[in-house]
Prior knowledge:
Elements: H1 23-44, H2 51-67, H3 74-99, H4 107-124, H5 129-154, H6 158-177, E1 182-184, H7 190-196, E2 198-199, H8 202-229, H9 237-259, E3 264-265, H10 266-284, H11 286-296, H12 298-303, H13 308-334, E4 336-338, H14 346-356, H15 368-387, H16 392-419
Antiparallel strand pairs: 1-4, 2-3
Amino acid sequence: xxxxxxxxxxxxxxxxxxxxxxxxxxxxxxxxxxxxxxxxxxxxxxxxxxxxxxxxxxxxxxxxxxxxxxxxxxxxxxxxxxxxxxxxxxxxxxxxxxxxxxxxxxxxxxxxxxxxxxxxxxxxxxxxxxxxxxxxxxxxxxxxxxxxxxxxxxxxxxxxxxxxxxxxxxxxxxxxxxxxxxxxxxxxxxxxxxxxxxxxxxxxxxxxxxxxxxxxxxxxxxxxxxxxxxxxxxxxxxxxxxxxxxxxxxxxxxxxxxxxxxxxxxxxxxxxxxxxxxxxxxxxxxxxxxxxxxxxxxxxxxxxxxxxxxxxxxxxxxxxxxxxxxxxxxxxxxxxxxxxxxxxxxxxxxxxxxxxxxxxxxxxxxxxxxxxxxxxxxxxxxxxxxxxxxxxxxxxxxxxxxxxxxxxxxxxxxxxxxxxxxx
Length: 423
């Protein structure tokens, strides 16, 4: 039967059901098809991004939710969002060091040393909390800078210098604490409130979700405009809209769950602000580009006239600063500082979080958000093991297995990139 241009039959009858093509359906199919092609191309080139860790995180959540329905409850998710902050901040600092292809083994000891300095100044000597807090953070900055400058000038591997730092700063922490061993913090003080204060007004959490979605949209849109102006490949407006919409759904769902318990935790707000700020520093400043360049090769960076000494010193200073801040949050969580602060599996968890989240051990690839994703995986495993009464030994085995898988994926991605001439 002949049809007219408006898709009606020549005799005036309406078209049969399903005869009119669905423009929305075709658009959705095209978007999904383009995403599939893009994913296959990126996988073949070794550019996996955050897909593997997101898949692992989703699997962990599904498994533990099936074992215990309280795992994804508002209370447990709220506690989880606070528990990731202390170690997560330390892991963010490690991301900077890993981008250079190095490893900082002293962050655990620096975190304990900084917390001890704060506790002794504030509790034993009556120094105001705000001043003691600043001094403690500066302690982390100075110790990291000293290590970075030493590595740059002597060209001794970073892990060797920081291994010496691990012993040195731990010894200084024990000396500062003295024979008392444990110092209890003021439960109503500034540091204690870092992890105990919640914004009970529902609008704060929803407002943060809206701001996050808006900022992400603006960043992607501005990036699209810059690329379009110089004729470079760029994302379509539909792709930007879909990505922003997906993030908005996750952000508002998280805000809803947090509001069902006690509201938005102050610790989580600070964590997200710090991570986002350092991500901007890494990806949108000259210093950040220099860090990535140095991670691509030290000698090449020297020949490009980059100040390797300054960059390496600054990176280790950032790592030390984040370790000190993380140590204060860990002390806030238990409102005390003891001789065991900064020890145990803290260092291993911080390094594992950065690597599991997608930061390459070979340097030059990773973001601060890698630490967030990796920390979510590690803490989710810990939380799930706790509510299901699983032995701690099994937790270590599972975390170690996830870390090994992340390292293997990183190595395979590196090999694939070399094959495609991208490494």
